[in-house]
Amino acid sequence: MNRLPRTSALQSRVTLPALTGVRFFAAFYVVLFHALPWLSAHFTLPDPLRTFLSNGYLAVALFFLLSGFILAYTYEGHVDGPRNWAKFWEARFARIYPVYFLSLLLALPFQSHLTLASSFSVVAMVQAWNPLHPEWTGAWNYPAWSLSVEGFFYLCFPFLQKLVSRFSSRALTTCIIVAGLICVLGHTPMQGLGNWGLNTTFSRFLPLPLLRIPEFILGISLGNYFLRRGSVCRGTVSTALASVAVVILLSLPIGPWVSLVVVPFGFLIFDLADPENSIGALLSTRLMVLLGGASYSIYLLQAPFRDWVRALSDRAPHNIAKLGTPLTPILLVGFSIIVFKVWEEPLRRTIRRWFAAKPV
């Protein structure tokens, strides 16, 4: 089988701070998407800006591509065999569940219609897996639906990575093209919360994660390609062009064909993984890495945090209360940084140590 030689990236496996930094913009884009009703009520927004903000949910597709890319980059060669599978799943649980659980605790006071079955599905992170109960997908803390999808991806990753890593160079290139075409032509980024069964004939019969897994596979394939070849689009020009293409596509009223944004998303991730990329250097500063680290909390805590600000504002004097909604995104960022530092990272380390101390 004709496999391309590995580069030094595989041996050194350097960190990819720019891909951490860009996560902040993706998370904040989703926050602005949810702020659009308030913005529209208080400001006259130009049509391109309104369209851009209304497409904010598509940042989830960027998260899915990033997840596949980073996992492939990090774990290539390290997820063979049941023991390594267990270590991988333990690491993923330690990474995502502390903030996930905190989001449920913060959201609980505002939930009055939870059933036992839907509650169990959310706690178990399988709320998006059941085609018979699509209404569970947004239960309790509705942004958590994408973490349910990610959980499914994590279960599949060791097996997908093993398969993709064995592809020849031609097969890997073909996989990237086919996965990209499926994402674009199948409009997979449009299949999310509230879009169940809208865009594909079979979507009402399939669990939601299967509708989004082409994006994850595309990320895995790009990650493996990067490990073999390194960046093939060095310099800031291609990164700038990809960024401009993302903004233009998200600002145009092109309906479901906004799924084309997956293509520049892929180029952007691939470019920013290059440590010599100048734009990547801006995203790799200490501040951006901190904000990127907090991006998971920004994304997952946005709904309960908004509810708490609203509840507290109702009890505040009017001149203070009216500042609650416009200041919510900024307050959310600050709160998420605190959560990242005092909750997410310490608990992740504690859980990892607990798993490591278990008898084999």
Overview of this protein structure:
With 360 residues, this protein is an all-alpha fold. The protein has one domain. 69% of the residues lie in helices and 0% in strands. It contains 15 helices and no strands. The chain has helices at 8-12, 17-42, 47-54, 59-75, 82-107, 116-123, 145-165, 169-185, 208-229, 236-251, 262-272, 278-283, 286-313, 318-321, 324-357. Helix 8 (169-185) runs antiparallel to helix 9 (208-229) and helix 13 (286-313) crosses helix 15. The longest helix is centred in the C-terminal third of the chain and has 34 residues, at 324-357. It is globular, with a radius of gyration of 20 Å.
Classify the secondary structure makeup into a structural class. Answer: mainly alpha
What general form does the structure show? globular
Gyration radius over CA: 20 Å
Low-pLDDT segments: 1-11, 196-203
CA distance, first residue to last residue:
36 Å
Largest sheet: none
Report the strand count.
0
Strand/helix succession: HHHHHHHHHHHHHHH
Question: What's the number of structural domains?
Answer: 1
Helical fraction equals 55-70%
- Strand fraction equals under 5%
Estimate the mean pLDDT confidence. Answer: 90
Q: With helices defined by DSSP (H or I, 4 residues minimum), what is the helix count?
A: 15
